[in-house]
Amino acid sequence: MLVYPSGLSVSTRALRFVTDALRKHRRSTRTRWRVLSSGRQALMVLAHLRKGETYRDLAIGFGVGTTTAYRYLREALQLLAALAPTLAQAAQTAAAKAYVVLDGTLLRIDRVAMASGRDRAYYSGKHKAHGVNVQVIADPAGRLIWASPALPGARHDAGAAREHAIPDALARAGVTAFADTAYHGLGPAVRSPFRRSRYDRGTGKFARRELSAGQKAANRAHAALRGPGERANASLKNWRILRKIRSSPAHASQLVNAVQAIIIKTEAV
Question: Which residues contact 144 (CB under 8 A, 6 or more apart)?
Answer without folding.
Answer: 136, 137, 138, 232, 235, 236, 260, 263, 264, 267, 269
